[in-house]
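I am still getting used to backbone structure tokens and would like to learn alongside you. Please make up or recall a protein chain and show it to me in full. Would you write everything just below, so we can both look at the same thing?
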Amino acid sequence: MRQTNFGTPNKTKTILIADDQPGVRTLLGEILSEERYKLIFADNGINALNMVDEFQPDLILLDVLMPGMTGIEVCQQLKNDDRWRHIPIILITALDSIKDLARGLDAGADDFIPKPVRVLEIQARVRSLLRVKEQYDLLEAQREALQTTLKLKEELMQVKDQALSNLEALRYAGLRLMNTLNVDYIIEQTVRAILSIIPDTAQQVMHFSSDDKQHLVPIVFEAQNNTKNIYATVGIESMVATVIATQQSMYEPDAHFQTHLNSSPLSGIRSIIISPLIAEDRVLGTLSVTSRKTDAFAPNHRQSLAILANQSATAILKARMFEELERVKNQETWKLRGLFERYVSPIVVERLMQEGEPLALGGKRESVSVLFADIRGFTTYAEHLAPELLIEMLNQYLALAVEAILEEEGTLDKFMGDAVMAIFNAPLKQPQHTLKAVKAALKIQQTTQRFSATLPIEKALYFGIGIATGEAVVGNIGTIQQMNYTAIGDVVNVANRLQEKAAGGQILLSQAAFQAVKTDVIAHPAGEFALKGRTSLEKTFLVQALREQ
């Protein structure tokens, strides 16, 4: 007969901690010492296997990277052994690869915790898995007790066979639930398990917390026609609220007096069991089973549903955590999208998603073209317009500039009141980036002219635009929590000064910018001006149009 360390609510739980680093073993021991567990330690995978044989722990914390035998190999060997596969295993790892985590799950790990460990997180997960282990142990004890009784009293064979079948169904349902990371599949397997252990079932109802945690969403599974429907309410919400508040199962043997059920999707039900979906001390919702018969559910049905609800909740939470880990794996990619999707064209965003390097503070020197566009006369204009109309008009003009910049795959750096700054050739390389900046500027002036023509003369506005080309430090400025992608350097100052000197409808180029586009753009000298901190004058050029190709 298989050796099993059956747990009881009052039994001191034994936890095996396997890690080759003494400091980590000491830390985990201190974290778990508050719970009065019996703690045993192993410094490598082989010793961990030997200690499992000797102490039969209730839960195992395994470091993934250990000499001789990795934590994943230890996990796989234990889960392939009928004696120990029921012991929950938590992998503790510094690895953040989804493939590595998936390998751990494939090996049979029940959970995983990243290093460095968080005290409350590891305590909660240990408690949750010990509860599941305790339920499995109780099921095994009941199963063996039933087998013994069946041998002694053959007249109870049929009843006990059914009970044993239910326990086995629960056990294997739990294994299936814990070995999947798909929430929809978990729900489907839960419904199937209910039908196998509680045959006379009219409906199964799952209430899940909504995304905003403000209300419960009921999903009704009809046993007879195998359908699933989502309703606003099903008439048992007050009972569900009580179960959630108390975190205790509820059984109503005769619900005919519940008049609000008469017009609900559950009309005609007489008896109902409701069990909370609890995992890691969090209530995810409830699981209910109904019947059209009075007092249709025996105590073992209620116990089975409570166990199944706990298994389902643990599996659902685990699947959600794995989805979160997938998001962590793509964290840098999503940060990249979040940083740029409002500021660059969709084409650039997709290229950044595929080619972008991980985001970090700091920057690197790049050759860029910087464009400044400012609405001329806006301050005077604002004095005679209500704030609401002023904002609306400002947004309309800035939208014209943004659209033109994004069409040329420029990067929006910032808005400064009625002005906008854009960068070309960063974050992605752009051949002829100065020409792209000039094309964007011409589009701004053209679309602004068309838009202004639809307005009264006194409301028409125009951009003054400056473009400079040169080296700048380009990168993320700010903090880890909040950073902005920007350019810093003399080229930015030059572009801004050019913009200040440009009249409404004009585009002024620096000498370097003109040299980069002189074969593609018609532009005429527009004079020289002094820059702060320079002894030489900056030559400027006024853009007229693009040359015909």
